[in-house]
Structure formats: C-alpha cells, structure tokens
User: What shape does this take?
Amino acid sequence: MRRVALVTLVVRDYDEAIAFYTEVLGFRLTEDTPRPDGSRWVVVEPDTGAPGTGLLLARAAREEQAARVGDQTGGRVGFFLHTDDFARDHARMTAAGVTFLEEPRHEPYGTVAVFQDLYGNRWDLLQPAT
Assistant: This one.
C-alpha cells in the first residue's frame, strides 16, 4: 500500500462545500464530475503541489447520511490539517471567518488549535514540531 488517497466527507451541498474548502481553507478543486445518478464526484485537496490525501465531498443522499453531516466523528477531532507556518495560516483562516474553538497551544508534538468546518466537523490546524 502506498497512501490513503481519499477520505469521504458527507456534506449538505456540493457547491457550498466546494466554496468553503477552496475559498476559505485554500484547498484546490481537483475533480468535479457529474455521475449518471445525479450525484457528483467532487474531490478537494490541500494546495501543496504534491500528492496527498484528498477529501471526497459526498452529498448526503439519505436521511441517515444527512444526520451525520457535521458530526462524522461523534464530536471528536477527525481531520488534521498540517501547516509549515501556523501563525500565517491561523491568521488567514481567522480573517476568512473560520471558527476556532480554542486559542493556539504548544504541545510536545507541535503548535495546534481546533477549528470547525462549515458543518461543525472538528479539525486540528497543526504545525508539527521539528
């Protein structure tokens, strides 16, 4: 095995999710392909220029899926966004309206702060210790 290529994130609406991940978090849209059933294959990735793990933005199709939007991990941090400059990205994200749930803190493993995406899923913004 080489890497995890995609992780599914259940969303309420494709276009609002694309806008948040590309315009607010600075990801790039790498694919948006219509499917015969009316759904779309939508992939966003951090704009690093190198291959990494992408998010497959999957619109909730059933009530059970819609109930999980924003709570895919039961309230735990489920996603980890690494940065090489915590202060820069924290300031940019704050200016873009991202909700941070705590002040930045320094841990043995790096500088970190928990934030929410547009649906309430919890993420770590993390600059790993060197």
